Amino acid sequence: MFRGFSGGVHPPENKLTEEFAIAVMPPPKKVYIHFSQHTGKPARSLVEKGDVVKIGERIGEGDGFISASVHASISGKIIAIESCPHPVLGTSLCCVIESTNGAKWKDTIKEKTDYEKKSKEELLQIIKESGIVGLGGAAFPTHVKLSPPSDKPIDTLIVNGCECEPMLTADHRLMLEHPAEIIEGAKIFRKILNAENLIFGIEDNKKDAAEILRKQSVNVKLLKTKYPQGAEKQLIKALLGREVPRGGLPMDVGCVVQNVGTCYAAFQAVKYRKPLIERVVTVTGTAVKKPKNLLIRIGCPVIDVVNFCGGYIRQPKQIIFGGPMMGIAQYSENVPTIKGTSGIMVCKDTVIPEEGPCVRCASCVDVCPMGLMATEIYKFVDNKNFSKAKEYGVLDCIECGCCAYSCPSRIPLVHYLKFGKSEIWRLSKK
Amino acid sequence: MKELLAVSASPHIRGKIDISLAMKMVIIALLPSFIFSVHLFGLRALYITLISIITCIVCEAIMQRMLGKKITITDGSAVLTGLLLAFNLPPGVPLWLPVVGSAFAIIFAKQLFGGLGYNFINPALAGRAFLMASWPLAMTKEWLAPAGGTLSGIDGITSATPLNLLQNPGNYGVPELIIKQLNNIPTIKNLFFGKIGGCIGETSALLLLIGGLFLIIIGIVDYRIVVGYLGSFVLLAFVLPTNGNLLFHLFSGGLFLGVFFMATDWVTSPVTKKGRWIFGIGCGVLTIIIRIWGGYPEGVSYSILLMNVFTPIIDRFTKERVFGDRKAKKEVKK
Ligand code: SF4
Ligand code: SF4
């Protein structure tokens, strides 16, 4: 069977925090919980200013099919529901909770439940109510992924432990420290999906994690480290040789891919009825004193996280949410984390090289895992020729950044391509 | 006051190779051949090369100034054009010739088309073609015998390069004898190690090969063009009727210089993978055709120039296959 995927790059890994056990950050004084934490429609607010909430209490309800609930991550009083900085959207509606009354958990949180006896539908309902979304970065609502239409049977559940972004180690640590819980979570998913096979895909720079999971007798496939192995379509191709059709989804080839963090969160939700109120985040970079893997409450402002990590070594030039290849640069140190925040990079320098002319070197073509010609597409976008850009497949771009990474002329190709995509969507809505 | 945070587009890290590093690497890969050439042909080779490079840099700066563009002479691309042009000149040419050739290459073939990235033909080759057309005698007669060898690589014949001999053996003696001599082991050894006459940069196939492989390994030169070019060339040299044998053709007439350093020029070769195969194969086929049936003995530079012209068309008709296009459906059924 064909293994591996075409294209891709090998950026320096710089996984500084690989050896650091996950530390727990105490609940912050204030959290900023956005109603839009995920791909899809923002949650509908269930609370008002002045309400008192407990940890785990639902403050926003999933609105529509592709949406997810959000929960209070600390207990306290809601002091505002207003527009606040958002790490992806700029600004967005947000619920601000100030801690007043210590740590009070919502009373539905259980010691444990006998989930083995629960039906598929019950399990799915719990996951939906717990606001579980994909924790790999895109934050797609998990219950949606777990409800494929009946004409798309799923034969394989893939658990994504690639963590192919340089510098990030949160998933790696989670696999080392909580393998049993991840596996249980994966088995819950498999039950819901009725999938025959369960495969863990892990890159060979994390052999220790693969070893630990193997000891628990699950099927672990070690993959040769290459970015972007953790992208769904590339991972499916690398593991199974199946190619998700253009514009299609993994379920079109009988697969569902779930990140290891998501499995862990789902297990917590099902076993303890604990909604998604915290996640492991890698805090790293050249300007933070003590890089860490940290369990952080959702909605905690970055500045609090940095202070917990010993503060800045010096004033940072850039703060990035996510990894160096796909992360999003933030304009304020007050932005809160959201469910999809896998890493916080605090950098003392910025890399904003000057853009040169395209020298047609074809690096961008050779490294594109989607078979796109970024050199042509960026020129079409630059000339506002969006229909040509579409014809050349701009909508298939997964924004992995391989092209811009390898471009010797330092052209911000991803920026052009993202702009092209958003323009095409905007024009098609008109 | 607090510094503002910089907001830039992802990715936030970049690969090591940028334009100026790539140019430097190509220049480094050409250095062994250059040094060897100075050893063979003396200081004259050095002067011609330096003149050519300096002219390129000056012309680039003047043109960018006049066109109101940023001056980018430090990126190494003008240096490389000058070096490659000199490599394509006979070492005995008058010293004004490289000045004219370089000026043409930079002003007409490069800057007037929009500068680096926009020129559709290789500037160094365009410069050479211009000199060939304007001063054919200087370009084909001003050879120098290398130190410790003869111009032709054969003892006793001092007035022609090997490919010239092959094309018109009758002019220099008994044709059968000359052809036999050209194809024997000592001559081929001379070709490979560079003890023959020829353009400044084309003499030692071995050194060019080492430089070229170095560039492939570090990822600056694409193997597809090289393999396509050499593969088709070898195949045709093998099956078609020609006077020289395979090794003779392979090591002579600047083939390696063209294959590794000029056909693979980023700007003027296709960007699609399939396109690069077609481009390489096209170059190989044309080179053989010119050598066997054409008017010029060597054929490498005209083949590449011709394929440069086809590059945009090749790109248009060989798009990459987008992930998940067509083929996917079959696999699911399995
Ligand atoms: S960002 Fe898009 S075009 Fe660039 S390499 Fe990734 S998929 Fe290809
Ligand atoms: S990598 Fe950059 S310079 Fe090279 S072809 Fe692509 S866009 Fe052009």
Question: How would you sum up this structure, described in words?
Answer:
The complex is a heterodimer of chains A (430) and B (334). Chain A has 430 residues and is of the alpha/beta class. Chain A has 13 helices and 17 strands. Chain A has a 6-stranded mixed beta sheet with strand order 1-14-13-17-15-16, sandwiched between helices. Chain A has a 4-stranded antiparallel beta sheet with strand order 2-8-7-4, with no helix packed on it. In chain A, strands 11-10-9-12 form a 4-stranded parallel beta sheet, sandwiched between helices. In chain A, a hairpin with a 3-residue loop joins strand 7 and strand 8. The termini of chain A are far apart. Chain B has 334 residues and is an all-alpha fold. Chain B is 61% helix and 0% strand. Chain B has 16 helices and no strands. Chain B starts with 18 loop residues before the first helix and ends with a helix. At the A-B interface, strand 15, strand 16, helix 9, helix 12 and helix 13 of A face helix 1 and helix 16 of B. One iron/sulfur cluster binds next to helix 9 and helix 10 of chain A.
What is the CATH-assigned architecture of the largest domain in chain A?
A: 3-Layer(aba) Sandwich
- What is the name of the CATH topology of the largest domain in chain A? Rossmann fold
Q: State the strand order across the main sheet of chain A.
A: 1-14-13-17-15-16
Q: Give the structural class of chain B.
A: mainly alpha
Average pLDDT of chain B works out at 87
Number of strands of chain A: 17
The biggest beta sheet of chain A is recorded as: 6 strands, mixed
Bound molecules: iron/sulfur cluster
Bin the helical content of chain B: 55-70%
Shape of chain A: globular
Low-confidence stretches of chain A: none
